[in-house]
Specification:
- By secondary structure, the protein is of the alpha+beta class.
- The chain has 3 domains: 28-91, no CATH class; 107-170, no CATH class; 184-284, GIY-YIG endonuclease.
- It has helices spanning 33-43, 49-54, 56-65, 76-91, 107-128, 132-137, 139-152, 158-170, 178-182, 226-236, 240-246, 270-284; strands at 188-193, 207-213, 216-223, 255-260.
- A 4-stranded antiparallel sheet has the order 1-4-2-3, with helices on both faces.
- It is elongated and about 60 Å long.
- Residues 204-290 form the GIY-YIG domain.
- Pfam families: GIY-YIG.
- This is Excinuclease ABC subunit C.
């Protein structure tokens, strides 16, 4: 009897210039459970399936066992499907391979990377309306994760970032915010280094804005006109703590993150923007906001 095929449905991504390109459907017969188990058995070197996802060397060996070139862009969709199939088997408890090895990376280095990892993963998740497994399995989003982390902490190890992301998930610090699960308002998420900010290029639509640096989130606010509100902060923020940080941007570069909505969306209502803002403050703990 042939081995069962794993469901390869891929999560749809948001459209837009920052989105991962939409992918063709990968033939589910490419990755039967038996093929995935065999490739895992030959490549895992005693490590867990999580480690296989995290470590470039193990992941590449697993993909090569399946005939996938991990560096070939034309095979990125097959790569994502294969890794997600592996995670499906793990979640079903269907790998049946003992774990005999553990990562040697010090816990201290992972903990130190958590502020950077949290901002980077939330930025990518917000941008693509994705799940954490999607980011770790999709090479395009995985690269975006590292790019966002590098903006905050130059030279940070990609593997350390991914480990910190998993630690955040296991500690339940990355649970989806309620408002993001129920709101479908054609949201646009963009990031803007404050040193290079062109105020005129910002949307003047309703939304929420977040200031952040390498230590974490600094301040979250809402506005009916985002560009005008950011201009107010640049001329002299009413928040003394944020004003001191913005005035010392050269020491620890600040990034502006915008969640912008169309003028005719529900976000034009103050109560809706406040709900969105409060949810982000509650989950992301910005330094200079009062917790709702």
């Amino acid at each position: 009897m042939s081995a069962p095929c794993l469901n390869q449905d891929l999560v749809a991504q948001e459209s837009g210039e920052n989105s991962v390109p939409s992918s063709p459907v990968v033939n589910s017969t490419d990755f039967t459970a038996d093929k995935i188990r065999e490739a895992h058995r030959k490549s895992h070197q005693g490590f867990s399936s999580d480690e296989l996802i995290l470590q470039d060397e193990l992941r590449d060996a697993f993909l090569q066992e399946l005939g996938i070139d991990p560096n070939q862009e034309s095979q990125f969709d097959r790569q994502r499907a294969a890794l997600r199939a592996l995670l499906q088997l793990r979640k079903r408890g269907d790998l049946n391979v003992p774990t005999t090895q553990r990562s040697s990376e010090a816990s201290e280095s992972i903990n130190a990377a958590i502020p950077t990892a949290e901002i980077a993963i939330r930025t990518v998740l917000d941008r693509h309306d994705a799940m954490i497994d999607d980011v770790l399995c999709d090479p395009r989003m995985r690269n975006e994760l590292q790019e966002e982390a590098e903006r905050l902490s130059k030279g940070i190890s990609p593997e350390t970032v991914r480990r910190a992301v998993l630690r955040l998930r296991k500690s339940r610090r990355l649970r989806p915010e309620l408002v993001l699960r129920v709101a479908d308002w054609d949201r646009s998420v963009t990031t803007h280094p404050m040193k290079q900010l062109n105020l005129d290029s910002l949307p003047n639509t309703p939304g929420v804005y977040l200031f952040r640096d390498s230590t974490g989130y600094l301040y979250i606010g809402e506005a009916i006109r985002l560009r005008d509100r950011i201009g107010d902060h640049l001329r002299g923020s009413h928040n003394a703590g944020l004003a001191s940080i913005l005035g010392d941007d050269a020491t620890n570069p600040v990034t502006l993150e915008l969640h912008a909505f169309p003028n005719d969306s529900p976000a034009k209502k103050l109560t809706v923007r406040r709900a969105y803002e409060s949810e982000l403050i509650r989950s992301r703990h910005p330094r200079f906001n009062l917790q709702p």
